[in-house]
Amino acid sequence: MTTDSVADFLAGVPLLQRLPTSSLTKIAELVQVGHYVKGEFVIHNGNSKGVYFILQGEAEVCVNPDDDIRHEFILTRYDYFAIGVPTPEQRADVVASSKLTCLVLPSEHCSLLQPKQETFPPVETILHLDPIEPNIYRGITLPSAPKNDASCRIFGGQFIGHAIAAASKTVDGSKIVHHINAYFLLAGDLDIPVMYEVHCLRDGKSFASRKVDAIQNGIVVFTLLASFHKDEKGFEYQEVVMPRVPAPETLLSVEELRERRIIDPRFPRSYRNKVAAAKHVPRPIDIRFCDPDITTNQIKSPPRCVVAYAVDLLLGSVVANPHRQRGLTIHALSLNHTMWFHRHVKADDWILFVIESPVATVARGVVLGQMFNQNGELVVSLIQEGLFRVASTPQTTIKAKY
């Protein structure tokens, strides 16, 4: 086959349709041809030469799916596979079920499969506020900032981060936010600026209290209560122990995990093609998942704004995890957050976020979270309640919380 004919074939592979023509040409120059007879292992015991693209023939993934989705694991022309997320206890074997010809992109060149990613602006830019009047600030949603996945509403963490930032601007700099209660009242419109109005509830010697209303079109869509405390010496202990987990630098990022899942043959073919075709923008926070075994300013409150912003990226998905099934769409929305900041937190260092969901009932679920610094110190505790509804149709959205 010529390079041009190989590139023409590769253009029909769903995984590669997100790449520019120049990348397809480069891949076409590097792929190697592999021939397999019926019954021969293509991938066995986790041994793989790279990413495989089926040119001719048929292969089968050795899994035990339900009969109604067994066809998802029969791979034919234009399908692709490789070693995905490494789990030694459940490695996938791929066997030729007929005479099979594959084009193989060697592992050392697999970086060519990465599409050019859009990037988020720095978190401090996302959380920037413009002063309008005393105690009134304006925030906007940048085009590339995270949005609520369900219907492109304003991301809940943005409300929290903006509100804490606004409240912090009205408090003596020696006092730092240590506790918040946040209430999501209505969905926020991405195209309309949000006015944050800060109400002074109390200014004491050691503590200060603020109430922040987020307003769009004259209507309060979000409210936050915040308490600030001046550092002082006192009793100190910690009963909870940080779980033992791998070092963060050794873990895959969310984006790397996503790419591994796309090529992992243990996932149904239709799911992998759908994820490969979906537009994906990396998050402004580096998140890495593990199993147990960005400086923003010179003062201390902004890092807490960043942490508060980041927590909403993951919490809701934990409640939905036990209920996920094929074809089920769940709409999730935050109802309220409560956070306690126990110690100073650095927004430009790794934080271990331990999350669990003890209960979900009557369409509401609760999530408990703890954040530890790299010294094992508990820096943040939090509780979130969310609304979780099964979508009756793909177009169903939730406009109001109550």
TrEMBL record:
<feature type="domain" description="Cyclic nucleotide-binding">
    <location>
        <begin position="15"/>
        <end position="82"/>
    </location>
</feature>
<keyword id="KW-0378">Hydrolase</keyword>
<dbReference type="GO" id="GO:0009062">
    <property type="term" value="P:fatty acid catabolic process"/>
</dbReference>
<dbReference type="GO" id="GO:0006637">
    <property type="term" value="P:acyl-CoA metabolic process"/>
</dbReference>
<dbReference type="Pfam" id="PF02551">
    <property type="entry name" value="Acyl_CoA_thio"/>
</dbReference>
<dbReference type="InterPro" id="IPR029069">
    <property type="entry name" value="HotDog_dom_sf"/>
</dbReference>
<dbReference type="InterPro" id="IPR003703">
    <property type="entry name" value="Acyl_CoA_thio"/>
</dbReference>
<dbReference type="InterPro" id="IPR000595">
    <property type="entry name" value="cNMP-bd_dom"/>
</dbReference>
<dbReference type="Pfam" id="PF13622">
    <property type="entry name" value="4HBT_3"/>
</dbReference>
<dbReference type="InterPro" id="IPR014710">
    <property type="entry name" value="RmlC-like_jellyroll"/>
</dbReference>
<comment type="similarity">
    <text>Belongs to the C/M/P thioester hydrolase family.</text>
</comment>
<dbReference type="InterPro" id="IPR049449">
    <property type="entry name" value="TesB_ACOT8-like_N"/>
</dbReference>
<dbReference type="GO" id="GO:0047617">
    <property type="term" value="F:fatty acyl-CoA hydrolase activity"/>
</dbReference>
<dbReference type="InterPro" id="IPR018490">
    <property type="entry name" value="cNMP-bd_dom_sf"/>
</dbReference>
<dbReference type="InterPro" id="IPR042171">
    <property type="entry name" value="Acyl-CoA_hotdog"/>
</dbReference>
<dbReference type="InterPro" id="IPR025652">
    <property type="entry name" value="TesB_C"/>
</dbReference>
<protein>
    <recommendedName>
        <fullName>Cyclic nucleotide-binding domain-containing protein</fullName>
    </recommendedName>
</protein>
